[in-house]
TrEMBL record:
SUBUNIT field: Homodimer.
UniProt protein name: 3-isopropylmalate dehydrogenase
The organism of origin for this protein: Ruminococcus turbiniformis
Residue positions binding NAD(+): 285-297
Primary role: Catalyzes the oxidation of 3-carboxy-2-hydroxy-4-methylpentanoate (3-isopropylmalate) to 3-carboxy-4-methyl-2-oxopentanoate. The product decarboxylates to 4-methyl-2 oxopentanoate.
Location of the Isopropylmalate dehydrogenase-like domain: 4-356
PROSITE patterns xref list: IDH_IMDH
Reactions mediated catalytically: (2R,3S)-3-isopropylmalate + NAD(+) = 4-methyl-2-oxopentanoate + CO2 + NADH
Methyltransferase among keywords: no
Amino acid sequence: MEMKIGVIKGDGIGPEIVDEAMKVLDRVAEVYGHSLSYTQLLMGGASIDVNGVPLTDETLAAAKESDAVLMGSIGGDAKTSPWYKLEPSKRPEAGLLSLRKGLNLFANLRPAVLYSELKGACPLKEEIAEKGFDMMIMRELTGGLYFGKRSTEKENGMLVARDELTYSEEEIRRIAKRGFDIAMKRRKKVTSVDKANVLDSSRLWRKVVEEVAEDYPEVKLEHMLVDNCAMQLVKDPAQFDVILTENMFGDILSDEASMVTGSIGMLASASLNETKFGLYEPSGGSAPDIAGKGIANPIATILSAAMMLRYSFDLDREADAIENAVERVLQDGYRTVDIMSEGMTQIGTKEMGDRICSYIG
Ligand code: NAD
């Protein structure tokens, strides 16, 4: 297969971790006979330094022309970096928001996996961590409360604030379809999370999700109220496969789920639109405190590259090969500093990438 990949290395540790993900992709291409081409794109602080703005129209157009975009992280130290002396709309993070909007990325995917080798980092009780978990949180990203009308007005001498929560059938249907498609590639279970006992938008959410489910008879659908889901994530996370939910609930639940894995350098993510296109990036930031030291954990970015192969190119076998290689490296006791524990062997960013490559093929 020919793959045209846009690459945004970004700021801080971004270039270091993206280089390792590209190394792993090259290894996959070599072993499985694919052809990769990379277009380097500037976004965030790196773009401000060259272009004066965090995202140019040309970069957005080039991203649109790619089959998928692999990204590191963007941003710097807000206290010391000159990027944060600029007005908010010119800062690195504004570039990311414009990119997501420009690419119409309405579905955010965040896996939360507890590897048995890293269960020591899991803050949950030992008997829960022992069972491990592997879930995918699918969050609607462009609708709901965060995008509704808002106002703060004085009424009868008192300030009153309002935020509107709106979802259309169409917005729910397109994310639900995406959620069921993802479940078909996994353990075929969808937990749709809402607050249907209170909110109209949640009642519509539930109705539309049930309609979409009819087209996926192999997938088991269950509904769960968001307050219960927040509890179940710490009580019995192993029960979840795909959690499908709206914007604000997903914002909160995906952070909760990533906290229970205990290791930020391991968390991949993807944002998808209606086509096969996706933006793939680690969940963590640009870690300016360790940038340039060669110690950042590249695994989240490498796992994001695996997601890209799975969801943008339907290369499940190749994605499995990367994920299995990551597990083997962990089983062999190799760790970057952020996931280091007693008795393990500490290695740097490049060596982690090399070791993962050595287990592919
Ligand atoms: P951060 O995630 O960059 O760092 C938090 C802590 O985790 C730091 O101690 C860091 O060293 C560590 N860490 C993060 N990723 C790591 C990795 N791969 N390997 C080893 N250790 C890792 O969060 P922050 O310090 O709050 O933010 C730094 C910058 O990143 C800010 O400018 C912020 O806006 C930006 N940011 C960008 C994104 C993105 O690009 N999507 C996301 C979050 C934060």
